[in-house]
Write a structure and sequence with these properties.
The protein has 20 helices and 6 strands. Strands 1-2 form a two-stranded antiparallel ribbon. A two-stranded parallel ribbon has the order 3-4. Strands 5-6 form a two-stranded antiparallel sheet. The model has no long low-confidence stretch (mean pLDDT 94).
């Protein structure tokens, strides 16, 4: 018999029971459900809503139930619909009428909102920890390649000289934003909904602040309707996770390109590559491809929950049971991707000579040539036109700017001198870009140090 069956004259149809049940996915929140119930029972006893002796018995029995579920001694069943009713049924079986008092001044509506927030707070910290580890790996790899010149791209066309370390630090900035987005999401969800009841609070003299404090929340939600109907925090987390996956996917795409024979900038460790069932020569970047593919899966979770919530009137609606599978899947996916991405990055090997060879082609020092003329007194647009003609001449001759004879330079602009070749040297081009955020070695070392300070600061925040 269902705990809510008082006004019903028929048993729930078996198919409907299976359709209605959520224990197959919300069962993972059993620790959060029991932790919330312990705090609620403690409050009921302290406020005198139930006898302190009964509150103590409830708390002790709940701890036993948690241990039994963890040990596999207590099975969670679809007959009890969800994690809340599974726990309450087990409690009542052990304590009888005393167990029935636990749900005083509480609804499953505020209970599930509490459980979900408790669970996601924990998961945010797990994801953040993995992100910070990935950033540590990224910083260490960047230190190895501060002098590895490579062509920077726009439109996937060689554009200007950069370094591998500078390239990696671009992802460092992305992941920094990801960390702060998670922290912002955590701060906004860190308010307890328990005490909102079904939607209109309760007539009992509860102490919501006590429960919030016991559970480690910053405070309580300010409106009971919003407390039970809000899933913004779940959508916001899905959005933050989608951004993380987008950044991992972009990085994966570049790894995939760089591992190709056409680029040959990078080689992944054998432990993070796969072969072909028919082509013995193949070494495929399947792990990076899977990360790229799983990004679409996470995007789908975000769109699913946005769609579920878009037309719901206040307050709770059963549609909201669809929130958990999307979020749980996205959380599991991003954690798995971060777990495999960090060691894949840590064990990969760049090919600096191939990077340098690629940088020597494609006229990526053309802007530096124009800047050379500007520093000699030409307006930038005039310098731009001159260098465009020089590039056309080089293409015609099949050589690079640094190989063009000085007479050809002077034929187009007489301010050119021997020092133009020093200005066109790729290492000089890179290390001359000392503006904040640029690829000069000393500037990239500053960026790496900034990232390492960020990692240390945000690890400390979790203590």
């Amino acid at each position: 018999m269902k705990l809510w069956s008082g006004r019903f004259s028929k048993e729930l149809d078996g198919l409907v029971n299976d359709f209605n049940s959520s224990i197959q996915f919300d069962g993972r929140m059993y620790e959060e459900d029991i932790t919330g119930s312990i705090a609620h029972a403690t409050m009921l006893g302290k406020t005198g809503i139930i006898a302190q002796s009964e509150a103590d018995k409830i708390v002790a029995a709940l701890r036993e139930i948690c241990n039994d579920i963890t040990a596999g001694k207590l099975e969670l069943t679809p007959d009890n619909e969800d994690i809340h009713m599974n726990v309450e049924t087990a409690l009542t079986a052990r304590l009888g009428d005393t167990g029935k008092r636990l749900h005083t001044a509480r609804s499953r509506n505020d209970q599930v909102a509490l459980d979900f927030k408790l669970y996601l707070k924990k998961e945010i910290l797990e994801i953040k920890s993995r992100l910070l580890h990935l950033q540590t790996v990224l910083a260490e790899q960047a230190k190895k390649y501060t002098g590895a010149v490579l062509p920077g791209y726009t439109h996937l066309q060689r554009a200007q000289p950069s370094t591998a370390a500078h390239h990696f630090m671009a992802y460092g900035e992305m992941f920094k934003r990801d960390v702060t987005r998670l922290e912002d999401c955590y701060a906004r969800m860190n308010y307890s909904p328990l005490g909102s009841g079904a939607l209109a609070g309760t007539t009992y003299p509860i102490d919501r602040e006590l429960v919030a404090d016991l559970l480690g929340f910053a405070g309580v939600t300010n409106n009971s309707l919003d407390g039970v109907s809000d899933r913004d925090y779940a959508i916001e987390l899905l959005s933050a996770i989608s951004m993380i996956m987008m950044h991992l996917s972009r990085f994966s795409e570049e790894m995939i390109l760089w591992c190709s024979w056409e680029f040959s900038y990078m080689e992944l460790d054998d432990a993070y590559s796969t072969g072909s069932s028919i082509m013995p020569q193949k070494k495929n970047p399947d792990i990076a491809e899977l990360v790229r593919g799983k990004t679409g899966r996470v995007y789908g979770s975000l769109m699913a929950l946005l769609t579920v919530m878009k037309g719901l009137p206040l307050a709770y609606n059963k549609d909201m049971q669809e929130d958990k599978e999307s979020v749980f899947d996205a959380v599991d996916t991003v954690k798995m991707c971060l777990d495999v991405f960090a060691p894949m990055l840590e064990t990969m090997r760049l090919k600096p000579q191939n990077l340098r060879n690629a940088a020597s082609r494609g006229f990526i020092n053309a802007t530096d040539c124009a800047d050379y003329l500007v520093k000699k007194g030409l307006p930038f647009r005039d310098a731009y036109t001159v260098v465009g003609k020089l590039v056309a001449l080089c293409i015609e001759k099949g050589i690079g700017l640094e190989e063009l004879p000085l007479d050809d330079y002077k034929a187009l602009c007489d301010v050119f001198a021997d020092d133009v070749y020093e200005a066109l040297n790729l290492e000089n081009c890179v290390n001359g870009r000392t503006s904040i955020g640029g690829p000069a070695e000393q500037e990239v070392l500053r960026q790496i140090a900034t990232l390492e300070a960020f990692i240390a600061e945000h690890k400390e925040d979790d203590k």
